[in-house]
Amino acid sequence: MTAFTVALVLVVAAAGLLRWRRPAWYWLAFGVTLAALRVLVRYRSVMDACGLTVPPARWRLSLARATNRPIPEPRPPRIRRLRPTRTGLVLRLKLRPGQDVFDIAAASDRLRHSFSMFGVTSREVRSGVVEVRMTGYDVLKRVQMPAETEARAMRVPVALREDGSVHYRDYRAIPHALTLGATESGKSVYQRNLVAGLAPLDVALVGIDCKQGVELFPLARRFSALADSPDTAAELLDALVARMADVYRLIRTQQRITVDVPDAEIAADIWDLPDELRPTPVVVLVDEVAELALYATKEEEKRRDRIITALVRLAQLGRAAGIYLEICGQRFGSELGKGITMLRAQLTGRTAHRLNDETSANMAFGDIAPDAVLAAIQIPAELRGLAIAGDASGGWHRIRAPHTSLRQAVNLCNRYADRTPDLPELVPFRPTTGTATELVPSAKASPATA
């Protein structure tokens, strides 16, 4: 064997090993170049086979007949840009007259097979321009978030989408959200990623964990308030409703609606206020909403109605006051009682991990994206963390959060403990943050200790 043959064998073996053990490295080293060449060489024939071409214009046909030239071939969408990424290729197409973005979406599976890619998704950038994102490998099998993300105030990266893009939780755009998932589905990991993303920001975290605080109390150093029982949760939610009313009074006094004030400077929520007057935004994380809605006695029923009423009020009115809800649970259905459906209607963002029943999937997506219901109930048990994320616009994506251990989340919360704001309304619910024994929650709210 010649030296060239030996080198070629070694390169092929290395490429095969990388493709098996490190698909991301293989893609960056070999796959992206091969895929780009494959797309460019096969493009016209693939588009023709997938029915994504249009007949030539009449004047071209007339010109060909008049000059006795061959009939022009059907024309595919014009490639405006081909951009490689760390997970695949991004193809921007200019549609021909008569073509529609739904034509591209309907042919996604055929394009995936024809171009030998792992996945193909499309979206309309603007009228007549479609962006086709192609992934070269299963990016959700081993999630690796990019080193640089477009995080900003109240917008944090929490997961990776199946097309290789980052999934953000943007509270300014989607103030309230519902997250569902059965036991061992990855819901807690998703919640930890959310807390980890919010920890460095100027935001107050409020937690309600009725499982005696086993999920959220380890992160107590970054929380301004925590409740570990329905009784404490009822008092905490009442305090948040009172804070919401105070914030609205502040906005009223600072609205600046005089004639000489431009429209853009009139205050309608906390983000229109000057920095020195703006109240701290609050994110409320409810770990298990069913525990707040269940009751066995008349007294517990009164407490339950009080809790659900407070949650509905915060969901309806809290956005402008900078109060955002993250409602989590294993089960979410109308059997939880009155007010649950009203609460769901205010939760714009929906995320569903593996569920035990179809009813919960219908409660999550039935009113916004019916086709996402089938995708949610088909999540296999072995793929922890895989979820379907959608919103009221009807769009949905498969996402998966990177694995974050409880120790990693605790270390991050401890690192940013100095950013925990002290809100007067929430002082009675501030968790103690001393030794490990002091972190054990009590049945009732206790004042903050030095």
TrEMBL record:
Region (Disordered): 428-450
Entries under InterPro entries matching the protein: FtsK/SpoIIIE/SftA, FtsK_dom, P-loop_NTPase
SUPFAM superfamilies listed in its UniProt record: P-loop containing nucleoside triphosphate hydrolases
Pfam families per UniProt: FtsK_SpoIIIE
Entry keyword Iron: no
Keywords: ATP-binding, Nucleotide-binding
Residues binding ATP: 181-188
FtsK domain: residues covered: 163-362
Protein name: Plasmid transfer protein
